[in-house]
Automatic annotation (TrEMBL):
InterPro entries linked: L-lactate/malate_DH, Lactate/malate_DH_C, Lactate/malate_DH_N, Lactate_DH/Glyco_Ohase_4_C, Malate_DH_AS, Malate_DH_NAD-dep_euk, Malate_DH_type2, NAD(P)-bd_dom_sf
Family: Belongs to the LDH/MDH superfamily. MDH type 2 family.
Its biological purpose: Catalyzes the reduction of aromatic alpha-keto acids in the presence of NADH. Plays essential roles in the malate-aspartate shuttle and the tricarboxylic acid cycle, important in mitochondrial NADH supply for oxidative phosphorylation. Catalyzes the reduction of 2-oxoglutarate to 2-hydroxyglutarate, leading to elevated reactive oxygen species (ROS).
Superkingdom of this protein's organism: Eukaryota
The protein's Enzyme Commission number: 1.1.1.37
Protein species of origin: Triplophysa rosa
This protein's name: Malate dehydrogenase
One GO biological process term: malate metabolic process
Family matches, as CDD domains: MDH_cytoplasmic_cytosolic
A molecular function GO annotation: L-malate dehydrogenase (NAD+) activity
Reaction catalysis annotation: (S)-2-hydroxyglutarate + NAD(+) = 2-oxoglutarate + NADH + H(+); (S)-malate + NAD(+) = oxaloacetate + NADH + H(+)
Lineage of the organism: Eukaryota, Metazoa, Chordata, Craniata, Vertebrata
Active site positions, chain numbering: H187 (proton acceptor)
Keyword tags: NAD, Oxidoreductase, Tricarboxylic acid cycle
Residues engaged in binding NAD(+): D42, N105, V129, G130, N131
């Protein structure tokens, strides 16, 4: 059997982690034959809660789970990592501005980037989930200069999955028959869910999304705003941010990094923008359509972009530039 992979989950006493850890530990992400050492980081006051999570993981009696290491110390948490899933942060509460969240969180991601630099393997794959995810990811990457920026990505797969599901429900089919939706830009309400390259499989045949849905006004209106506002709608209903669906999206994202995307399919993730064909400003973590092979992502280049899409892609880029500049001025990185 293979050597265990060492996987860190931060915010491990929180609600996303509670939905996430079982799936990772039973092999949904890194493979059904891949043993795992799970390292669980949270802050000191949460250690008693984390102890309970550890007990539950032990009580699952999972064959792949070789060891569980709970800690509140960076030098333990980040040591020799193969994968880091950075969830821990201050979550957005009802009515909270993204700017407040940015201030509270970028400092965390700076110090975690520094810890990755110091302790993790240089091959570590880092997935940032804690919001504002794109900018937190950029700050972590900048704070770990000896780890390739390509090893960092942020979660927009939840938005991607939401978009697939909205189209699928509209067509009365299963979400597995919808492929190649794109989330462009920021994991925020300026994100642009784009279906111009999306295909819907109707009775065994791939059909252009606009032809399958047969409602252009909906696709260019309520569909977009529903996906953009979905996180806020869940918070309003649950009084807590998305957890079960976020955990599922984290698994989808990391599994695709580990095992690759299917031929002919692309997925969305926030990655470092440099030299792309879409005119997205450099030095941002921006969500693009990507394919993945051998644990390496590649932006799907050359897709036709109409004026409708262009304006929305630019608006979300402008928000990210502003967010980055605020974060950088705040931290001096
Ligand atoms: P939660 O509040 O239930 O858990 C967060 C955990 O992080 C807490 O246990 C807290 O003690 C811990 N934490 C805080 N600072 C930490 C630090 N410096 N190091 C390690 N742990 C730390 O929050 P929840 O619901 O699990 O959400 C976590 C984050 O994920 C939030 O920022 C939320 O906005 C974000 N999120 C992102 C999504 C995405 O699609 N990118 C989707 C859903 C949530």
């Amino acid at each position: 059997m293979a050597e265990p992979v060492r996987v860190l989950v931060t915010g491990a006493a929180g609600q996303i982690a509670y939905s996430l850890l079982y799936s990772i530990a039973k092999g949904d992400v890194f493979g059904k034959d891949q043993p795992i050492v799970l390292v669980l980081l949270d802050i000191a006051p949460m250690m008693p809660v984390l102890e309970g999570v550890v007990m539950e993981l032990q009580d699952c009696a999972l064959p792949l789970l070789r060891e569980v290491i709970p800690t509140d110390k960076g030098e333990v948490a980040f040591k020799d990592l193969d994968a880091a899933i950075l969830v821990g942060s201050m979550p957005r509460r009802d009515g909270m501005e993204r700017k407040d969240l940015l201030k509270a969180n970028v400092a965390i991601f700076k110090s975690q980037g520094e810890a990755l630099e110091k302790y993790a393997k240089k091959t570590v794959k880092v997935l940032v989930v804690g919001n504002p995810a794109n900018t937190n990811c950029l700050i972590a990457a900048k704070s770990a200069p000896s780890i390739p920026k390509e090893n960092f990505s942020c979660l927009t797969r939840l938005d991607h999955n939401r978009a697939c599901s909205q189209v699928a429900m509209r067509c009365g089919i299963s979400a597995e028959f919808v492929k190649n939706v794109i989330i462009w830009g920021n994991h925020s309400s300026t994100q642009y869910p784009d279906v111009h390259h999306c295909k819907v499989n109707v009775q065994g045949k791939d059909v252009v999304c606009f032809d399958a849905v047969k409602d252009e006004a909906w696709l260019k209106g309520d569909f977009i705003s529903t996906v953009q506002q979905r996180g806020a709608a869940v918070i309003k209903a649950r009084k807590l941010s998305s957890a079960m669906s976020a955990a599922k999206a984290i698994c989808d994202h990391m599994r695709d990094i580990w095992t690759g995307t299917q031929e002919g399919n692309f997925i969305s993730m926030g990655v470092y923008s440099t030299g792309n064909s879409y005119g997205v400003p450099e030095d941002l973590i921006y969500s693009f359509p990507v394919t993945i092979k051998d644990k390496t992502w590649k932006i799907v280049d050359g897709l036709a972009i109409n004026d409708f899409s262009r304006a929305k892609m630019d608006a979300t880029a402008a928000e990210l530039v502003e967010e980055r500049d605020t974060a950088v001025s705040f931290l001096g990185v």
